[in-house]
Amino acid sequence: MFTRFPKSEIKSVSLFYKTDKMKRLMEVPFDINGDRYRFTYDPKEKPAATIGYFFVVTLNGGSAFATPVDSTGMLTPVVQHLVNPVEYYKKRAAYRN
Q1: In this structure, are residues 83 and 51 in contact, taking their beta carbons and an 8 Å threshold?
Q2: Of 9, 41, 57, 73, which sees the most CB atoms within 10 A?
């Protein structure tokens, strides 16, 4: 993730995520001194069928911004259905034949 806020104004940047196997959201705080904010999900460590996530940026003045939001301004976490990559490419190859 990248932000448009100057680094000097950022207090924190976090990823919040939850899989279908988790009861609560997990917060992953990012190093605010980095050039980009990155997180790698390891499905072997936390297996799941779906994952939902969103980002929150808190500024030094106390403002907080979250993304993604819908057209009404409501937070709408991204939901991804996780598939086994081997199975995905097998199915994809079958469509070509």
Answers
A1: no
A2: 57
